[in-house]
Amino acid sequence: MSLGLVGRKCGMTRLFTEEGESIPVSVVQILPNRVTRVLNEQSDGYSAVQVTTGDVKNSRVNKAEAGQFKKAGVEAGRGLWEFRLEEDSDLEVGSDLSLDIFEAGQKIDVRGKSIGKGYAGVIKRYNFQMQDATHGNSLSHRAPGSIGQCQTPGRVLKGKKMSGHMGDERVTTQNLEIVKIDTDKSVVLIKGAIPGSKNSDIVITPAIKTNK
Questions:
Q1: Nearest-angstrom CA–CA distance, 51 and 72
Q2: Does 41 fall in a domain?
Q3: What start-end ranges are recorded for coiled-coil regions in this protein (predicted)?
């Protein structure tokens, strides 16, 4: 993984090109990311940079995080994120990461927590096909159908697609494009939709794969 930035999703809007084409974009506000810890191969076993962003009251921070912020000498943020690196970094604790590490037109990966949709059946959750909605079918229109086998193995196999909690899990969308960076407003406009609800935390990193 490469060095990235942590921001907050503001929503979606659109931009118009000179030809009049409408481009849907996601708006991510990225405030300065403060370095709280620098890990290296010799002392920690791997290379990484730990950052925080935003402002939080001290009463809202648990003792473990409060100790890290105090040791780093930085103001408390709304969380701690870590970017693993291939080699040791020259960054210093207390320094800021700005939008300069990204540029317009660059391909990125965006990670966030998807919107929770509560308890869902297999049709909504896994796009299963409905049973016949005609005569002879009673109360089984959206049922999952058979879930097991005969006496061998005589059980439901692990990982079977069944109804359950949908959403509210970590999702990464790859190979998105940065359309525009507004340094004055600390905003990044990303082409297309990104995971997460409004005001949720978003992690942006350089793309690890590129489209052929």
A1: 10
A2: yes
A3: none
3-state SS string for the chain = CCCCEEEEEEEEEEEECCCCCEEEEEEEECCCEEEEEEECHHHHCCEEEEEECCCCCHHHCCHHHHHHHHHHCCCCCCCCEEEEECCCCCCCCCCEECHHHCCCCCEEEEEEECCCCEEECHHHHHCCCCCCCCCCCCCCCCCCCCCCCECCECCCCCCCCCCEEECCCEEEEEEEEEEEEECCCCEEEEECCCCCCCCCEEEEEECCCCCC
Q: How many domains, in total, are found in the chain?
A: 1
pLDDT for residue 212:
55
> The whole model's pTM is what?
0.85
The answer to whether residue 162 sits within a structural domain is: no
CATH code, 28: 3.30.160.810
